[in-house]
Amino acid sequence: MGLNLDDKKAVVAEVSAELADAQSVIVAEYRGLEVGQITALRAQARQSGVYLRVLKNTLVRRAVEGTSFEGLAQHMVGPLIYGISKDPVAAAKVLQDFAKTNDKLAIKGGAMPGYVMDAAGVKALASMPSREELLAKLLGTMQAPVAKFVQTLNEVPGKFVRTVAALRDSRETA
């Protein structure tokens, strides 16, 4: 049974609201996946903060009209599952990781604001570290000079204490 006009408008509004804050949209064909597999994929997506939904392509085309994801319409053919996320890498990682273990999930393409990717582009995006990993690396890089400076300052009194201890030990033995 199809959706009535009010339901279709509600779906378009929901997808438009998700796209307003989105940094990436990934499109994958799910033909041949069983219900249990799609349920597992949805659970992974929820954990990563990815909006994952099977939608009618015509409704999504209406939702992306006039947005920076408008170029994605060329990939909207066939039974598709849409992954939309605020983290540019999260949706690509979830779908790419799932596609590694399930050959029936085929990534068709994706988009970032103003940039459309093919399947190879999505694979490259999925191999990038997440935002949290990049922030951790940046913090480690910023802390390294300060830690080395403190370590160097601590070395002077430490060396003095070791010298005094060596003198004490030499006098005790003599």
UniProtKB/TrEMBL annotation:
UniProt KW Electron transport keyword: no
Entry keyword annotation includes Disulfide bond: no
SUPFAM superfamilies xrefs: Ribosomal protein L10-like (SSF160369)
Transmembrane parts of this sequence: none
UniProt record, GO biological process: translation
Alphabetical keyword list: Ribonucleoprotein, Ribosomal protein, RNA-binding, rRNA-binding
MF-aspect GO terms: large ribosomal subunit rRNA binding
GO cellular component annotations of the record: ribonucleoprotein complex; ribosome
Subunit structure and binding partners: Part of the ribosomal stalk of the 50S ribosomal subunit. The N-terminus interacts with L11 and the large rRNA to form the base of the stalk. The C-terminus forms an elongated spine to which L12 dimers bind in a sequential fashion forming a multimeric L10(L12)X complex.
PANTHER family (UniProt xref): 39S RIBOSOMAL PROTEIN L10, MITOCHONDRIAL
Xref: NCBIfam families: PRK00099.1-1
Job description of the protein: Forms part of the ribosomal stalk, playing a central role in the interaction of the ribosome with GTP-bound translation factors.
Family membership: Belongs to the universal ribosomal protein uL10 family.
UniProt name for this protein: Large ribosomal subunit protein uL10
